[in-house]
Design brief:
With 431 residues, the chain is an alpha/beta fold. It contains 13 helices and 16 strands. Helix content is 36%, strand content 18%. Strands 4-3-1-5-8 form a 5-stranded mixed β-sheet, with helices on both faces. A 4-stranded antiparallel β-sheet has the order 10-13-14-15, with no helix packed on it. A hairpin with a 6-residue loop joins β6 and β7. The longest helix has 16 residues, at 213-228. Mean pLDDT is 87; it is low at 426-431.
Length: 431
């Protein structure tokens, strides 16, 4: 500096230690598919005296095996144009354990209002549950919902060619928005929702304990209220303040928002339980062997026998398979279910003669308790006209016919004679 009479420090020009081996490095980078650890091992094996840091610095300086980072994009959104939805797995301390949970998040791109919840798994049912809660929290929906190419929403295609599943498209139509998917590898397109997951893991979940999953979601909602009211330096305002300008532009919610539910048909097992996602819920023991309709909602399991609600349980949200039993669903102490009369037997005993006597004989001639035979007989009694059916039962009892298929054919023959007999005047004249 003194000799040059300049305050600028002169740059030291010196050859890199790896420069004499440039051709060998290029050859081994290609053969090792860019793995510099393997390249260093092969160079050392050939007697090249070079350290691994010197090798990586040389490759980085000359762009060998390293692509220059691409500049990130920047997107500006007017109010209510887009909202972004995504999920991410996390670990949370729930009930003394640390199970895996699926965290779902929705962010309005203009105001950065965020809403997130956690679920044991994330299926289309839980996706609709979450989006319903999120849109009610935000009091409206943006025009489009940007998603990752997830099978939960997508039926076929990726990116601009994505086709949503019919039930998800119908769900979006109800709230007047459309699903869009970003192109594969373009995670920067959904940065509004990707970035908060790091914040959720290191600010909300860190150091917190939860009694159960509903407790976690209650605290998550309160945390969203707090975060949305906190001023952001890069926004020069809080999301809540920007949301005041965005809210009038959102698509309003329907006048009636129906509860999200999934229907299952389950056969009551021999212990008096129905199985939903591995968890077993009790029903009245008299319904053993019946096929029932199970309605699964966000927090309830309701069981129906026809239009009648026969059981209702709080939904189990943990991953450990659980058995939920209501004492009233069990038989009285000392009474065996097999000794109790069947509901069908009680109904047939009060029917018109000769049905009670025919039913008693049918039960005696059937295997076991005769449950299936009595149910079939009761169905015939309810479906066919009363008088023809009683005539058919009388004939069947007279001739000892207890095959219900033959009884049904006999009933149809009697009905045909009574209702479809043609008189000579009704016949068409011969041409």
């Amino acid at each position: 500096m003194l000799k040059a009479a300049s305050p600028t420090v002169p740059r030291i020009e010196r050859a890199a230690k790896a420069e004499p081996y440039r051709d060998q490095i290029l050859e081994w980078v290609d053969r090792c598919r860019g793995n510099l650890v393997r390249v260093h091992e092969e160079l050392v094996a050939q007697g090249v005296a070079i350290s691994y840091p010197a090798l990586t610095a040389f490759c980085r300086r000359h762009g060998i095996g390293h692509e220059p980072p691409a500049p990130v994009g920047h997107y500006d959104f007017p109010p209510a144009q887009e909202m972004q939805h995504d999920t991410s797995p996390h670990r949370a301390l729930i009930g003394g354990l640390e199970p895996r949970i699926e965290t779902a998040s929705l962010v309005l791109c203009y105001s950065r209002m965020i809403f997130f919840q956690a679920y044991p798994v994330f299926t289309r049912f839980y996706c609709k549950v979450f989006l319903t809660d999120a849109l009610e929290y935000l009091t409206g929906a943006a025009a489009t919902c940007m998603i990752d190419n997830t099978h939960v929403v997508v039926a076929a295609g990726t990116g601009a060619r994505m086709v949503p599943a019919p039930e998800m498209a119908a769900f979006a139509e109800r709230f007047r928005f459309t699903f869009r998917a970003h192109e594969k590898g373009d995670a920067n397109r959904s940065a509004r929702v990707e970035r908060p997951f790091h914040f959720i893991e290191h600010n909300f979940l860190a150091g917190r304990t939860f009694a159960d999953l509903p407790d976690l979601n209650v605290q998550a909602r309160a945390f969203c209220d707090k975060v949305n009211a906190t001023p952001k330096r890069h926004l020069h305002a809080s999301p809540r303040e920007l949301f005041a300008a965005e809210r009038p532009h959102l698509r309003p919610l329907p006048l009636f928002v129906p509860e999200v539910y999934a229907l299952h048909h389950r056969l009551v097992d021999v212990e008096g339980f129905v199985n939903v996602h591995g968890h077993r819920y009790s029903v009245p023991y008299r319904l053993i062997g019946r096929q029932l309709e199970v309605r699964e909602t966000k927090d309830r399991i309701d069981v129906y026998h026809g239009p009648q609600l026969v059981a209702s349980h709080a939904k189990v949200l943990c991953r450990t398979f659980t058995r939920v039993t209501v004492p009233e669903h069990r038989p009285p102490r000392g009474a065996r279910p097999s000794t109790q009369p069947l509901p069908e037997e009680h109904t047939l005993a009060q029917a018109d003669p000769p049905v009670p006597a025919y039913a008693a004989t049918l039960k005696h001639r059937s295997a076991g308790r005769g449950t299936q035979a009595l149910r079939r007989l009761l169905a015939l009694y309810r479906e066919y006209p009363r008088v023809p059916f009683l005539q058919a039962v009388t004939l069947a009892a007279q001739y000892g016919l207890f095959d219900l298929d033959r009884l049904e054919r006999l009933t149809l023959r009697v009905i045909a004679k009574d209702y479809f007999r043609l008189s000579p005047d009704d016949e068409e004249p011969e041409s």
